[in-house]
Specification:
microsome; alpha+beta; Cytochrome p450; four-stranded mixed β-sheet; binds protoporphyrin IX containing FE; monooxygenase; single chain; 11 strands
Length: 496
């Protein structure tokens, strides 16, 4: 009798709480988790379908915790602009064992002081010093691409992620490891498993308790993989610590004018003296994870789009020849700015395929949006993947059209209409670091190879980072030098 009464009260509370905002019907204990987990097209599509159906502010229940997805640009701006809500939403809870108090998952004063301290490590002055590292790594990437010439379709993301992991460790961490080895691929496999299980755990109410999850098969796999990742990062930290001990760093970091240079990421923490060992590990895990995967996504999706759209590729190539000549090894800071059309292509690619499709905050006090108020204690996620597909701003949103980002088309558009790097105080710290590499790699690859259409992108199921099923499959053909030579400059434009 008492149990029946409790269930009725529970159901009543549920129905009252879930009435307040439009969203799919939850069930007690599970909320919408079962529907999310079992959606035939995966988690991302579940949210797409429901947000389209219920509107710009859609409520879900993850077990007994509310999650609101927002897609209206004004609402997104209100949430991201403020420093009042820097805590991350419940969708980050289960990635915390990996990222700890690193920049992505930390909040409050700790996040604020770390962000301030680490920001100079991603300044352009430092990135410029890394250009030779990126170029060296691109050479290896090109050797790997050469093996694919004339062959069948292949997953370009697998190749690019090898590049971006190596480039990240050699630049931001200052360590040259022989990363084409087994340990590298073991790390990548472990990271893949951890991300998959984080997502599974988010939508599995039975795994919410640490006690239960640790004892499950998935939990034991998760923690085994976490050990592999931590070992990988610790190895990097210890190696750099040893190198810094041996070198006269104070002399190394003086520029030609006798001024102290900004320190790269890992050095700035190791030399600061205020970061605990655990904090350094959290930050290193965070930067490797946040950085290499999304750069690889950006490059791979752009190559895919260029393969599918030969006319666009031709314009990008013509612009490259015009700005940099044949020798893209001298791709300089000025060239990055001059490649205007390539910028449009990148913006359009990041619109369609934002590497981080959803990012959220936990609202600790009531938050007034444009037409509604979010109650304290709610997680609110910006659904960039869907807001980037708003047909009123981006007509035919599934069509790849870089002209949407021509100056005249962008005029008057909402500043938050396309935010692949997020915006506001918690926006991506590595945006410049990423864009320099994306452009450099694209320039080098396109200089040597023409990208041919491969296979249409499969279903995208994941939520943490955008990963299509079956990878990103393209084909490549070597450009013959004769093709380059027949481009001639006629009346201000390049013609073949
Ligand atoms: C194309 C490449 C990249 C994209 C699209 C991207 C996107 C994003 C987005 C959307 C966020 C906000 C996430 C959130 O609020 O949860 C973010 C945050 C972050 N990103 Fe990136 N990112 C990229 C590359 C990088 C790189 C190369 C690094 C490091 C070198 C990096 C480090 C970070 C960090 C540390 C944060 C957390 C910042 C904070 O909360 O203070 N990202 N990134």
């Amino acid at each position: 009798m008492l149990i029946a009464l409790l269930i009725i009260i529970f159901l009543l509370i549920w129905s009252v709480r879930s009435e307040r905002m439009p969203g799919p019907t939850p069930i007690p204990f599970f909320g919408n988790s079962l529907q999310i987990k079992s959606h035939p097209n995966g988690v991302l599509q579940y949210f797409v379908e429901n947000c389209k159906r219920f509107g710009p502010v859609t409520r879900f229940w993850i077990g007994s915790k509310p999650l609101v997805m927002i897609t209206d640009f004004d609402d997104i701006e209100i949430l991201l602009r403020t420093l009042d809500h820097t805590k991350k939403s419940i969708t980050y809870d289960y990635i915390k064992p990996l990222l700890g108090e690193g920049l992505v998952t930390a909040s409050g004063k700790g996040w604020h002081s770390d962000r301030k301290m680490l920001t100079p490590a991603f300044h352009y002055d430092i990135i410029k010093r890394f250009l030779h590292i990126f170029r060296g790594r691109v050479e290896i990437l090109l050797e790997n691409l050469e093996e694919k010439v004339g062959g069948d379709v292949f997953d370009v993301h697998e190749l690019i992620i090898g590049y971006s992991l190596n480039a990240m460790i050699e630049s931001a961490m200052g360590i040259t490891l022989d990363l084409e080895n087994e340990r590298n691929s073991t790390y990548r496999k472990a990271l893949k498993t951890v991300l998959r299980l984080c997502q599974d755990r988010t939508f599995n109410p039975f795994w919410r308790s640490d006690f239960v999850f640790r004892r499950s098969k998935a939990g034991s796999e998760f923690f085994q993989c976490l050990d592999i990742i931590n070992d990988f990062s610790m190895n990097i930290i210890n190696e750099r610590r040893r190198q810094l001990k041996d070198a006269d760093y104070s002399q190394l970091m003086i520029d030609e004018n006798g001024e102290e240079m900004k320190k790269p990421f890992l050095d700035s923490m190791l030399m600061d003296g205020t970061f605990s060992d655990q904090k350094i590990l959290d930050q290193v895990n965070t930067i490797i994870f946040a950085g290499h995967e999304s750069i690889a996504n950006g490059i791979s999706f752009t190559l895919y789009n260029l393969g599918q759209n030969q006319d666009v590729q031709r314009k990008v190539y013509e612009e490259l020849l015009m700005t940099c000549g044949r020798n893209l090894h001298h791709f300089t800071a000025t060239n990055f700015r001059e490649t205007k059309y390539m910028n449009m292509v990148l913006r359009e690619t990041f619109r369609m395929y934002p590497s981080v499709p959803v990012f959220g905050r936990y609202v600790e006090s009531d938050l007034k949006l444009k037409n509604t108020t979010i109650t304290a204690g709610t997680s609110v996620s910006c659904f960039a993947y869907l807001s980037h597909r708003n047909p009123e701003v981006f007509p035919d949103p599934e069509v790849f059209d870089p002209e949407r980002f021509a100056d005249e088309s962008r005029r008057g558009r909402h500043a938050y209409a396309q935010i692949p790097f997020s915006a506001g105080p918690r926006s991506c710290i590595g945006q410049k670091f990423a864009l320099v590499q994306v452009k450099l790699v694209l320039g080098e690859v396109l200089r040597r190879y023409a990208i041919l259409p491969g296979q249409k992108i499969g279903q995208i199921r994941s939520m943490f980072t955008l990963k299509p099923e079956g990878g990103i499959r393209i084909r490549v053909r070597r450009r013959s030098s004769s093709v380059v030579m027949i481009f001639t400059y006629r009346r201000g434009t390049w013609n073949s």
